[in-house]
## 1
Amino acid sequence: MPRRNVPPDRTRTPVTSPAAKRPLVALEGVSKTYLNGTVALSGVDLAIRRPEFLSLLGPSGCGKSTILRLIAGLGDLTTGRIEWPRATHDHRGRPQRDLGFVFQEPTLMPWRTVFGNVYLPFRLKGVSKREAAPRIMAALERVGLAAFAGAYPRELSGGMKMRVSIARALVTQPSVLLMDEPFAALDEITRHRLNDDLLALWAGQDWTVVFVTHSVYESVYLSDRIIVMAPRPGRIVADIAVDAPYPRGEAFRTSALYNECCRQVSAALRDAMAGHEHEE
Amino acid sequence: MNPAEAKRRRDRLMQFLVPLVLGVAVLGAWEFLVHFYAVRPFVLPAPSRIWAALLADLPSLAASTWVTLSVTMMAFFLALTGGVALAILFTQSRPVEMALFPYAVILQVTPVVAIAPLILIWVGLENITTALLILAWIVAFFPILSNTTLGLRSADHNLLNLFQIYGASRWQVLTQLQLPAALPYLLAGMKISGGLALIGAVVAEFVAGSGTGTGLAWRIVESGNRLNIARMFAALLLLSVMGIVIFFAMSGLQWLLLRKWHESAVRREN
């Protein structure tokens, strides 16, 4: 199948070994039309690599969350295919999607403790609590909440709940973490801290984050690749690399490269919105 | 003890004391007025006379209390199991819900007094307890059914998505997500239903009529016929106590099961 290369302005070729060139997830000609006739996505081609920190950026209605849900297997495609070239497939030919999902809300079960919430993915697969406990505690350790294993979600702040949600998504050590505007509901200080913590979790690891956001600055700070999307119908309009090394810190936020990237991404977003100004 | 804590204790004490003082005052006034105006006992007995009647007839009244209580508890238990089972069925199968829900509503809105004679004829006067059970059940089960159905549906959609992502079975979704999410709703339904089961049992007993009843409701009818108003009041008192006990038992259960996680059972912190 021929692959259309969306980015005309793509400047970087990732340094990867030949075996890693097969994408982790490949979307080919993906369209999604809802029952009410809304065209959420139209003809989306996207190859998600491993590892990478990929952001999907665009205004509301551009279908960025829809892409995430389709990758997770929630809902059907109208046309096109989503392949997992590296995954094993079950007897019915469905890929064993190996992913974690973080929603905009923490989406915790209020009747379970922090430990019980992070145990969920294992519990649903029939892994005993005792067997899973070391990995659960390790995941909580990584998000800095080991001391709160016995607390109930209502006892935690918004940022802490989000960390629990991230720990739950990472506890199975998935190859891709899908995040749907995860920090949009948090205050800016908490958001910056969680951004840094997320980068620290991801840095040097061999896995992929697909991060949906509508913030240019957040996407530039976090990502090594940004997909800019346009609405009505939802489609990809730019694929921009952010060639800054990790780890990134406050120095990156004030660097010339950061500003240049923000300018470039903003311009792409503005082009994407051309003709839609009256709607925003 | 800090001032806030002291205030809270005082509030709690007042919450208990104020109604008690009012009750004692009303009883005192009642006793006084009955004696002052020399009201005949078959019109309005004094509280002291009611208390005496209660003590004098305690063995037989206790037996009647047991009859009414056991009908109430059995009807409540059947309403609970039937209501929850039907609610689960409704949420698992849309056609079943479409077929049955209208009839559940009809059963609910038809006054139980109007159905009672029919049920009595069908079941037969020799099976009076069964008839009482059916009638009390009809009254009690609907709050459980409708609340549990609502609760099962109220599970967070993104949690449902998450369960789907992790490949959860229908059974896992039901037992680990929908039922826990429905628990606060179910408990609210049980609180209503517990009181309704008692009302259903009493109404059914009234309708079942002469010679067959041995429960408290029948003792009220019988005492009224014999102008033994003091015993009537005594039976009424026992019914009220039963209702109060049921209410507090349900509230206690609610607190016990929800205190750790649900907003309704947690004290506001500000």
Note: Residues 24-85+110-279 of chain A form a domain with the Rossmann fold fold (CATH 3.40.50.300).
## 2
Amino acid sequence: MLVLAGCGGQATAGQGGSETLRVATSALAASVDPMAELSASYLRSVGAAEGLMRTRADGTVAPELAEKVEATSPTVWTATLRPGVTFWKGGTVDAAAVVASMERARAENTLAAGLLKDVTVAATGDRTVTFTTKEPSHSLPSALSHYQLVIHNVASAPKEADLTGPYRITGFESDRRMVLERNDRWWGGTPGLARVEVQKVGDPQARAQIALSGQAEIVQDLPTDRAKELSAAPGMALVAKPAANTVTVYLNPSSAAAPALADQRVRQALSWGVDRQEVVDLATNGLSVPASSWLASNPAFPDAAKQGYVRFDKATAERLLDEAGWRVGADGKRAKAGTKLTLRLLTFGAEAATGEVLQAQWARLGIDVQVRNVESSLINQSIDKGDWDAVTQAWTTLGDTAKLMAAQIGPAGAANHGKYTDPRIAGLLAQAAGAPSEDQRTAAVYDLNKLMVELAPSIPVHPRVLATGVSKKVTGFVAHPLQYENIVQPTMTLG
Amino acid sequence: MRGTGRGLFAVGVALVGLMVLLAVAAPLISRYDPAAQGVGPALAGPSVEHWLGTDRFGRDLAARVLHGGRTTLLATAAALALVVSVGTLVGAAVAAVGSIVDRLARPLFDLLVAFPVMVVALALVGLWGPSLGTALAGVLIVLWAPFARLSRSLVRTALAEPSAVAARALGAGRLRLLRYEVWPRLRGPVLVLAAVEAAQLIGVVAGLSFLGLGAQPPSAEWGAMLQEGRAALWSAPHLVLAPGIAVLVTVLGLTCMAEGLRDMLDRAGQVVPE
């Protein structure tokens, strides 16, 4: 029987100070209702919302509002709630409240509905909630740690937020500003800060200036191209952590404009032809790390960094392209039967720099790449229309790994943009999700990752960088691979 | 009181000529490929090896500024040639035909002249996606109209001059009238306007690239380089200074040319566009 148990409160929170922590972020919730799109992630990141479980910085999950979560049969997980947990307004967080929160999430949020698909949630005691799955499930604790399943008081929603976190919201301007004050009822003790002021500052350069001038103690999403200047700033530390997502170039094997991508050898050649260390150095100022395989950015699967495209191998890339019939002409460009090897690469946001380095590296192989940096909605539109060759996206790798891999390579996977298929995929996905032992499930995940390397539906490059400016007055900041766990911690204080 | 304008014109020609020369001779002056990454350390300052330093990808900034001049100046020159010829010919034709065509065309010219070039270019980029070609197409849709309006007005005036009336009475054909009566009155003002619009065009081309809607990577273009350098304004100001000065010198040169030419025409008693 698998038991995931917590060890009392979140610890050392207990010596509350009187200081105000000022935070500058790139984005902020549009609503205080955690079931509104994306709101829960922001609410969690600022210490307002909590779930039954949480994801730790090492990628493992641990109980949060639950005292323990145990598998009582292959299809039943039982969560025992911590005693004495209340919502901000004083209501008890009992089994009935948790069930109501889960059911509202399922009804009102598609992401939550996906996480709770085929899961029956029932209160089986004052502090006991059972989760019954249709099939044996090993990933329910991971799902419960997802930000979209934070526990909220349904009676107050959607007009008011009544959550459980160490900081309660006392002021809010949609998408602009949020003020939080210490929640004296918090179950883990006295939170370290009296007040938190979160301000959205959309322009990355403006955020960098705020960090440099000391106008905020924590500044999120700093531009990596100012790393040198920010690192040297007095009174502030630049905390850079590779995120648990992999910036990946997805390839369209059905593209009419780039027919070469239908050939697995060409896709593999593109991946071997990427000097990931150079991409990291030039595009992220050395703040990220190379990702040799898609799963490499998941800290819970450390061996994934040893799988896949572990080195830059131009010779192999050239050989594969030659074997596929794309040979270098007198002009230095590769062509086959009069058709040039070209492709269009769409990038989004900070990945523009990654795209530009890839363009230069692939040009050295004789491949002509047009790079355009566009809005993410335009990337999605191009994929929907089928009018695309290559796009960059960075899907999360940390969470319910079997489901995340199914999204990448499964037959109906949301990130399987190229509709890749292989007879081995279904069996490995079933093993990854449902094999009886954890070792077997882990092995299946690694095998799937290896299969993705072989099929090369996409090219893993590097994780995104979470670059945060943290004042040296701040203690207790925890760099986390998930952005929404990364800002305000209950143990944080201002010295 | 205005001067002769010759000095100003000469300064303008010298500045523009210098920039054109540097752009044309770019491959001879710089030994680096402007798109080649890692030819030097990233964000290095000016040195003997890299005269203007390097950018975040370790590309030689001097090579990019010089080759960027080719992109910007060539795009501007091509667009200008097109708007000047189309606008002048359409305006002249409208004036020559006269009557109802003239009455219909005049409000159209006024409407197009009132249209902000940038807005039209942005609309086209929104429709067809960002590229220097698309941005220039937006410019062309609007920018021929000032030339058409000027040309129409000057041709009408020229044809009403006593010398033109007399020539026509003596049996001069259309071509002869154009050659001896219209063209001498048209060329100066059109040149002044062309110099003024060229300065504006440089701003539009660089501005659209600055917004990421014009030249696409890895093309070197002054506006795009200004955008790339903006992020490191304090730590590596050379990234912004180099293309910024290039734009400044070119626009200054064109403005001097336009002002000088205007003064020269003014002294010669010709109509000059404001």
Note: Chain A has two domains: 3-199+466-494, 245-463.
